[in-house]
Hints:
Elements: E1 7-13, H1 20-30, E2 35-41, H2 47-53, E3 57-61, H3 67-81, E4 85-88, H4 100-108, E5 114-118, H5 130-145, E6 158-161, H6 162-168, H7 180-188, E7 193-197, H8 213-230
Amino acid sequence: MAVPAGxxxxxPAYNEAARLPAVLRAVAAAVPAAxxxxxxxxxxxxxxxxxxxxxxxxxxxxFNLGYGAALQTLYKYALQSGAELVVQLDADxxxxxxxxxxxxxxxxxxxxxxxxxxxxxxxxxxxxxxxxGLGRRLFSVLGRIAGVSVSDPTSGFQAxxxxxxxxxxxxxxxxxxxxxxxxxxxxRRGIRIREVPVExxxxxxxxxxxxxxxxxxxxxxxxxxxWTESRR
Length: 232
């Protein structure tokens, strides 16, 4: 399926100058009619300039605000621009831009409001590290208890219609880790979610979101967020 005109493809990016050109070329080849938007989250390596030199619209944070904050900047831009559909993917090359039409298709056709590109909904060779894998299984279970059945709640490869974009512009959206807690909040507000099987590559660099004490904070934050949402 061809992605219709008026679609924004957004990439939150932090110090991705080396990997971004190949990703942007692949996005442009996959969805030539889309506007490509890179949110430079306070990078120190010229990420924003590289994105602009490859034809992307660039939204810049003056300093690093976090992955969720970069996504919300994208959503606010899309909402103000009048976009009816947003596809988001990571800037490090983990996601295959050729699969953008597949992820966008159920949202563009009205089958759902939010489509998640999943590594695990179908047979896949992708392997997470033991800690990340345990966390994914734990929060998948907790998500199901809260009413969200999603196999890959941490996937950053998603397609969103305007209703979801508007919801995610609200203050509840977290600046750091928008994961299963956000999906629970969306479901409780009537958002229809569907998973789409995709292939993903191992990230070419270490995670800037996880590792060390950040893993403990992530678990604490997710449990607190899920509990808070369950109390609404």
